[in-house]
Amino acid sequence: MAARDSNQKGFGLIGVPLLIAVVLALAVVGWAVYRHGHKNSTKSDATSSTSQTGAQQTKSSTDQPAQTAPQYLTIKEWGVQIPLSSAVSDAYYVVPTGISNDADGKPSAINFGLASKNTACGTVTGSPTDYNALGSIVRALPTDKDPVSGKLYTQLDPNGATIDGYYYGYADASLKSKSCVSQTTIQDIDAGFAAAVKSAAATTATAN
Amino acid sequence: MRPLSTLHIQGILSFFEMFIRRLRTNMQYGTIVVAALITAFVPLVAISGVAHAVTDCSPDGVEYSGSSWLNGDAVNVCNDTGDGSSNYVNNINGTSTLSGAKWQCVEMVNRLYLTKGWITSNWAGNGGGSSGLIYHLPSNLTDQVNGSISYVNPGDTITFNNVNDSDGHAAIVNSVDSNGTLHIINQNVSSSNVTSTASISSGSLSGGNATYNSSWTGYSVQAIVHQPNGPFTSAPTAFVDPSGNYNVLAEQFGNSVQYERSGSTWNGQPISSSTTLVGTHPPLALTDSSGNYHLFVATGGGVNEYDKASGSTSWNSGSLVESTDTPTSGIGGFIASNGNYELFFDTSGGFEHWEFNGSTWNGEAKTGAFISTPSAFQDSSGNFQVFLQSTGSIDQYIKYTSGTWGSGAPATMSGIISQPWAFQDATGNINFFFNTSGGSDHYEYSGGSWGSEVALSNSSLIYWPFAYHITISGTDYYVVIVETASGITDWWRPTSGGTWSHETTATVTPTSGMVGYVDGSNNQNMFVNTLTTLNHYENSGAGWGGEQVYHD
């Protein structure tokens, strides 16, 4: 009996650490699973953020849920990218023919198009007689003024961001005159591009 | 498990917080967009049927003087104070015409073109964009879209698209650098931006595919609209017809154009040519005793003749004088006393003489190395006098009535910089003038020998002198008119002797040599090109007056 008791006691002494070990093991495995899943999620975000560059490229909004993985449009001439909400997720850009260059030789503006609106509003080509743009970005020094209005570009196009000394402002003049889509859609596009340009950042600052 | 659950819950909450924040932001922008759409569009050009007197920047003042651009022959750039009322100017027919709203960019374009006679009615449209000037072109204007530009001239209109304004912008090209860079004059801009530039970023004008880049942030060059005249590509040639009408002709972008003044109005008429004209060689225009007009043009394949019969309203399609040799100069000549047409021009092997005897053209050549358009006339003895510039001399050739030729080199010197201009004076003496590096020299054949003098000293003379004699109140005078880059001056002295006097003929920048004549009323007439105009100057004894020769 004593031995059985002992065994019973002995079993009891072994059982406690084993339980602790199992709990710890489960905790470690659970933490590891959590960390693994978190890392995969972060990596997916980074991949989608660099998946869209250059003019005339389009991107499906179903690649990653917009709620958790915003897409980016990279403007390679400037080394700048902007996040795209669902309203402008298929945005592309062109450099207009004959546009001025800034002091560093980079174009002073680009025009936006939306692939899903090409049929209704026409493809944005950037040619001198292309009036299909659905918005633009002006690139200027923060002290630069429009020659005609005399206004600072930071005032003329207040939705913008300053990156490496240049102000990037969203210009909506081309979008405002459009009748190829509903006014509601125009408002959505306008808001989408405005928010996007306000969140513009240097490409190198966000790429992993 | 607890930490894991906490992270997930925080993440979900964070996402919803961000979503709500973005939703608020979108609603805010949506409101702004709606408000902007309600107030966005204001018509650029208000059109009124009410005519007003011609105003010149009134009441807002001049921002940049018209005398400061297009060689001093432009219109004022007006201060844009937001006036916005309609402005009217007289077109070349004297009709008060809307130039636009004070003082929009397109108003200045209209005012310049109306004043120049390049348009006669309002040219509607915004500066650029989808409702821009290029979509409302007057029938006599042509445009080239950016990327397909082959030439640009002063006075051309340049249009822009603007990412900040779908109405765009328009301005005028003031000058063109040798590398194609455009210097532009703008109205309706801040004062520091009245002048701007555009430069070629790709392609070339010669290739017909030049692309111009704007110099303004957010502005892109849309197109160039060419003014109809452009600079003339040759010096003019002029005559008075038997009815007393003044005529002047010149080459212009591969065609010759005739302008004729009846009363006080000049009317222009193009003379189409299917042949390649030799760019800058002066043509020769003559009128015969019946009032028929004849134009002789140096081409890449010989010499062409175009005719306009007296009373006709059109020129014929042209005929060939000769196709054997290519002229290397303009054409000199006259209608001889027997009615024959006598033409003289230089070629690579010498100068040639072609004569039309009423039925056929016959030619002959005189070998030599000449470098100028011949100056030729028939003297009072019936001999043909021909003077040409060669290296280091002014050469004289005489074709006597016997048919034989004589020659000489009355002026031999270094520093000759122009062709001669020769004539016979009232006493029968043969005279010629030519420019040198130090001024203008005069040679006169009198008493069996040549004498010479320096008529005037000026080291800045350009092109050639235009010289003649004229008798005023019983006194015969030599007159020589010379050009510099800043103006034209005439000099005179009695043919019997004395000192030279001078006065300013015009303060323009000439872009060609001169031609002219003394008309039947003893008025002195001279024609010359500027960068954008063909000008006529006349002196009826009370000084020189000037006018522009337009076509409508």
Uncertain segments of chain A are 1-12, 36-66
> How many whole angstroms does the radius of gyration of chain A measure?
27 Å
Helix/strand-derived category of chain B reads mainly beta
The CATH superfamily of the largest domain in chain B bears the name endopeptidase domain like (from Nostoc punctiforme)
What is the number of helices of chain B? Answer: 2
Fraction of residues of chain B in helices? Answer: under 10%
Strand content of chain B: 35-45%
Helix/strand/pairing class of chain A, anyone?
alpha+beta
Overall pLDDT score of chain A: 78
Largest Cβ-defined interface: A-B, 52 and 50 residues
Characterize the quaternary organization of these chains: heterodimer
Q: Give the CA-based shape of chain A.
A: elongated
Summarize the structure.
With 208 residues, chain A is α+β, with helices and mostly antiparallel strands. Chain A has six helices and eight strands; from the N terminus they run H-E-E-E-E-H-E-H-E-E-H-H-E-H.
